[in-house]
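name: query_chain
kind: protein
chains: 1
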Amino acid sequence: MYLPWLGYFDRIVRSDVHIVLDHVQFEKNSMINRNKIRTKESWNWLTIPIKTKNKFGELQINDLSVDNTLAWKQKHWKSIKFNYSKAKYFKDYAYFFEDLYENNWQKLLPMLKFINSYFFEKLNIKTKIIYSSNLNPTLTKSEMILELCKKVGANKYISGPFGRNYLNIKEFDMSGIKIDFHDYLHPIYAQAYSGFEYNMSIIDLLFNHGKDSIKILKNE
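structure:
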């Protein structure tokens, strides 16, 4: 995910191993290349443009190319500065994002790895990260998730809430792997503007609460 929301990190911090599904097909309007930031009025999307013309069905996440014919980097950094420059801890993180948006990213995945590695460091998340493309899965859907769990020796799989719609729980049970559905209890915290907007990017929490962000994220 690009600039992921809090629940993404909460699921990772509760895991021993987190597998990023980078070999699967890109879905338009997913959170892979976009996320929300807080604004005075409510919130806005920040979306990285992807080269998709005549390529749907052939767009694995680990091979997505960024469309740099559009001035998206300047737009994103300008939006972040405009909406968060007065946040208490903005200056503690601003240098990273300024450098980030000066880089000439050609592929999406290296950029996402770079950003999320930074977030893991700042949130002190030590979970082992593995990419599914390195595990060479051969199956799809529920069977693929079970296959990946077996490859890393898992005895528990933490699923997003939508896993209830497609996971074959019986097959997991037969394999000795328990499924925990992650229904994230979103914390309410002080944002830069009055009122509260749920499901913002992690930067909303970091800019407003700094080192306390991980405790808030985990509802501690």
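note: The chain has a mean pLDDT of 96.
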